[in-house]
Amino acid sequence: MCGLMAAALMTGCGKKAAVDSVKLGEYKGVSYTPVPVEVTDEQVEAEIQGLLDEHAVETEVDRAAKEGDIVNIDFVGMKDGVAFEGGTSSDYDLKLGSGSFIDGFEDGLIDAVKGQELSLNLTFPDPYPNNEELAGQDVVFDVTVNAVKESKPAELNDAFIKENTESATVDEYRKVTRENLLAAAQADADDRKKSEVFQKVMDSSEVTVADATVDAYYNEQLSNYESQASQAGIDLETMVSYYGSDLDTFKSQLRAMSEEASKQNLVVKAIADAEGIAIAEEDKDALATEFGYADKDNMVEMVGDTIVNNYILTEKVVSFIADNAVEA
């Protein structure tokens, strides 16, 4: 029989058998650089301003459009004199400066007035994942301006806060906003700490991962992506093109990611075995709730038991490392 190895997942027996093995580095007392957790008055006011902007009131104005205005338009996009698919709309509200349309479209409507008709000669970017046939193509958009509107933020007062938040007054909402921002800043600092100490453990550990282990992880991930593409009614090659990549590059990157993830899984399992860290059913219940699944069974059905177990065990082990870390 093949001998046991630390955190080993054996792929076969015999002289030429490839095995996974881990020689752990230090994982207790790992040093880290703390991240300051603070919130400024400017950050609080920016959050409040965002709320006011969300409830802005639009008013039609009798003047030329400028950046930040909303123009209501009808438009038809044509290539070689023929309207192309997805290039036509009516009664469309477009905020100038939002970057919602291709370059030149919104700029072409600056200084436009109600009732004006314009022809915009533009070129689609290349690549253009939304419609590969239009990538790099010259087109003309015939646009009619129906209205020019300006958007004014809502007025900040107790009545507005009471109507649109769970707070009763502006002062209370400002306090709650600061507390929420502090909680988010603390969560970010905790995440950075975990990332730093776990990377140090990975760097100090000696890991050998068998091709078969990487293959298994890679094939499972590839199958998941193929399923996502199928559910969207497209093939994988088309899906990755939407992200500006090609199938060969995507698979190469997925292979490299699979190798690194496999190494991390081996280190995680070795530490879990050494420290008696295990996965409880309650962990799966909590994770299902966190990510909005109906229950743990639904979660496992959707993403697979292996992925769920690896995620939970990694979270518990990395938290253990972080809890035992020391400030540099």
UniProtKB/TrEMBL annotation:
Q: Where in the numbering of this chain does the PPIase FKBP-type domain appear?
A: 68-128
Summarizing the function annotation, the protein's role is: Involved in protein export. Acts as a chaperone by maintaining the newly synthesized protein in an open conformation. Functions as a peptidyl-prolyl cis-trans isomerase.
Question: Which organism does this record belong to?
Answer: Hungatella hathewayi WAL-18680
What protein family does this chain belong to? Belongs to the FKBP-type PPIase family. Tig subfamily.
What is the protein named? peptidylprolyl isomerase
User: Catalyses which reaction?
Assistant: [protein]-peptidylproline (omega=180) = [protein]-peptidylproline (omega=0)
Q: Which GO molecular function annotations are given, in alphabetical order? A: peptidyl-prolyl cis-trans isomerase activity
* InterPro entries associated with the record: PPIase_dom_sf, PPIase_FKBP_dom, Trig_fac, Trigger_fac_C, Trigger_fac_C_sf, Trigger_fact/SurA_dom_sf
Any one Pfam family here would be FKBP_C
Alphabetical UniProt keywords: Cell cycle, Cell division, Chaperone, Isomerase, Rotamase
State where the protein is found: Cytoplasm
Give the GO cellular component terms, alphabetically. Answer: cytoplasm
Record bears the keyword Cell cycle: yes
Cite a single GO BP annotation. protein folding
Q: What is its EC number?
A: 5.2.1.8
